[in-house]
Amino acid sequence: MYNIAMIGNRDSIIGFKLLGISIFPVSKKEETIEILNKIVKEKYAAVFITEEIAIQIFEKIEELQKNSLLSFTIIPNKFEKKNLGLKILEKNIEKAIGTDILFRKEEE
Amino acid sequence: MLLHVNPNRMELIKLKKRLIVAKRGYKLLKDKRDALIQKYIQLVKEDKIIREEVEEKLMKGYSIFSNVTSLMSEITLEETLMFPKAKSFIEIDFTNIMSVNVPKYKYIGEGNYYTYSLIETTAELDHALRNFYEILPLMLKLAELEKAVSLLADEIEKTRRRVNALEYILIPDLENTIKFITMKLDEIARSAISAIMRIKEIIRA
Questions:
Q1: CB under 8 Å to B4, separation ≥6 — which residues?
Q2: d(Cα B157, Cα B150) in Å, to the nearest integer?
Q3: How many domains would you assign to chain B?
Q4: CA–CA dist B40, A97 (Å, integer)
């Protein structure tokens, strides 16, 4: 049995608290890294991070996504949607296949 | 480029064996790469659809929750959110996609999440919570897909590098070296024959 964690700005994620998800409200980069280091050691499997936090510690997330059991998912925050998740997916495809075949097709 | 080996029969046999293994490995890895890419594209497509759905639903959920925060006083909201009774867990299963271990999540919700006083809270809170509760399994599905996509991308990159190294470096090198040794051995044989012919001439004379 593993837990679910959520990291992000307080207003966006606080609603999930009543569902029994661990909430970590953060605003600064140092705080986030501290919390991530804590989460890695405990029994968490899925971590959701809001966009504006994810952008600050992007390299760390990428590294943990590959080398640990944790899965990181970027979710939009309450105020704006930057489509960061889709951009990362796009980059990922380009790395694996060489060209960005999926998204280009749809634009045509 | 030639490999640094002595041109003799022993080495030739060894190299020929290595070439066979390299070719077989190349074929297998190429097949693996193709299969991985096929699976990857399928996952990516699914991921994209689910991400769009999740983001849209989350934004909706957020806006409903915003209504709650504006309708209720901050203190009551704090009180309401202070002691969640429900617990959310996930169970992990691993599936193997072409030797990549990909996790599968199963959501387990325990307890009721309506654990607050109905007198002090607004009906929007119930609505917002139900909304979040409904999104959660979908979000986990997204988490699972994102993880799989990232792991597969890594594996594809690795496999592609190996395939290229075999195709453009190891196999040509081996072939060139084999050719070099064969030619060298032939040359030695020819020179031996001509030496014998020359000796025969001298003896006969």
A1: none
A2: 11
A3: 1
A4: 9
Asked whether the beta carbons of A68 and B150 are under 8 A apart, the reply is: no
For chain A, positions 66-105, list CB contacts with chain B under 8 A.
66, 69, 71-73, 75-78, 81, 83, 85-86, 89, 92-93, 95-97, 101-102
Q: Are B173 and B1 in contact (CB under 8 A)?
A: yes
Number of other CB atoms surrounding residue B103 within 10 Å: 20
A76 neighbourhood in chain B, CB within 8 Å: 55, 58-59
ipTM of the complex: 0.85
Q: Would B202 be classed as within a structural domain?
A: no
- pLDDT tens for B177-201 read 999 999 999 999 999 999 999 999 9
Structure tokens at A106: 């749809």
* pLDDT per position as a tens digit, B51-89: 889 888 888 888 888 888 888 777 877 777 777 777 888
Q: Measured between CB atoms, does B138 come within 8 Å of chain A?
A: no
Q: How far apart are CA B174 and CA B202, in angstroms?
A: 42
* DSSP bridge partners of A47: A5, A72
Q: Quick check: is B111 in a domain? A: yes
Residue type, A100: D
CA distances to A93, B19, B112 from B164, rounded to whole Å, are 19, 15, 55
Name the residue among B176, B145, B194 with its Cα closest to residue B19.
B176
Looking at residue B171, its pLDDT comes to 94
Task: Determine the Cα–Cα distance for residues B62 and A12; give it in Å rounded to an integer.
Answer: 7
Q: Tokens in use for A90?
A: 């796009």
Beta carbons of A96 and B157 less than 8 Å apart = yes
**What is the structure's pLDDT at A103?**
64
Write the CATH number for B145: 1.10.287.3240
Top-tier CATH class for A3-81:
alpha beta
- Spatial separation of the C-alpha atoms in residues B172 and B193, rounded to whole Å: 32
Which residue in the set A1, A21, A75 is minimally distant from B91, CB to CB?
A1
Judged by a CB distance cut-off of 8 A, whether residue B102 touches chain A is: no
